[in-house]
Amino acid sequence: MKFVIFSLKFVTKFPWDQVSLCPENIHLNPMMIHLVHKLRSIIIVFVLSGFTCLSFSQEKQSTKTPGHLGGAVTITNNGVSLIPNLTLGKPAALFDMTVGRRLTFEPQFRFALEGKPWTFILWWRYKLYEGGKFRINIGAHPAFAFRNNTFLVDSVSKDFTTVQRYLAGEIYPSYSISKNISTGVHLLHAYCVEKEGIKHTSMVTMRLNFTNIKISDQFYMRFYPQVYYLRMDENDGFYFTSTLTLARKDFPLLVSSLVSTPFQTTIPQDKNFIWNVSLTYSFNKEYVEKQIVGI
Predict the structure, then answer these.
(1) Domain total of the chain
(2) Spatial contact of 37 and 26, defined as CB atoms under 8 Å apart
(3) Which residue has the higher pLDDT, 126 or 284?
(4) Where is 184: in which H helix or E strand?
(5) Is the pLDDT of residue 259 over 60?
(6) Which of 72, 90, 109, 216 is the most buried (most CB within 10 A)?
(7) At what angle do helices 2-13 and 39-57 cross, to 10 degrees?
(8) Pairing state of beta strands 181-192 and 103-112?
(9) pTM summary value
(10) Which domain holds residue 41?
(11) In 10 A of CB 8, how many CB atoms?
């Protein structure tokens, strides 16, 4: 409930009227204006929908299938993208949610800390195969990347927020070595709809996941080192990145840090060594997806 109250306060106080689109991009997607200016209502409906199902389902006779609702709010000193060598370069707030069980909807809303939108990613993921220690997950999403630009309009400099649209797909086979150690290969490809920008982005990642490194009876760590190959149009490179998380049992707050550096690359970037520190509030709440009889 605290998460819901926090989310509602954020989206209702956000200065949506200050967000404008570059006229050059409006003809590419006429619905984008509606998306940006009505996003407040979309987030409110999404946040409340999972909880509404709980109360509504009590009034109807139904069949029950297991479901899941989870989410997290993260504050970080440096926003890092899904592709770790791309960053916002300043503090950011990240809102992540997960709804579903085998098929999940996982929207991610990312903002600069002052409130300007950064990226919106609308993931759909599906657990394609689960057999013992071996699993295969697949996913796809549309994404919207917001960029702040300055243009001359009637000899006056004005700030505009432009939007680039992406379509992406992923496949992630993984293998559990033991209860707390797993490995996997993550393949991701993204396509930019707009004529401007990088059209094709491909990433192949080798991962190791250490999920429960015991420190004491109350505290534990998670460690996720990975090596990945990234290709962006004609440029490519090899990178190393890792995430270390400190958590306490049965406590919703956790602290994590990410570092990323290239081995060899021709992809231009502002900094070779990227790092951040993040504070995350997370929740995971079991719920029941209702299939209303007769509907």
Answers:
(1) 1
(2) no
(3) 126
(4) strand 181-192
(5) yes
(6) 109
(7) 150
(8) unpaired
(9) 0.74
(10) 2-292
(11) 15
Residues 197-245: tens digit of each pLDDT:
899 999 999 999 999 899 999 999 999 999 999 999 999 999 999 999 9
236: domain CATH number is 2.40.160.40
CB-based burial of residue 13 (10 Å sphere; 0-12 exposed, 13-18 middle, 19+ buried)?
Answer: exposed
SS3 content of the chain, % helix, strand, coil (to 5): 15, 60, 25
What contacts 186, CB < 8 A, 6 or more positions away?
170, 171, 172, 203, 204, 205, 207, 228
Do 118 and 110 contact (CB within 8 A), yes or no? yes
Name the CA radius of gyration of the chain, rounded.
21
| DSSP summary character for residue 198 | -
Strand, coil or helix: 179: coil
- Poorest-pLDDT segment among 34-38, 117-121, 270-274: 34-38
Q: What angle do CA 87, 280, 94 make, to 5 degrees?
A: 45
CA 246, CA 274: separation in Å to the nearest integer?
20
CA distance 60 to 72: 30
At 9-20, the pLDDT tens digits run 444 444 444 444
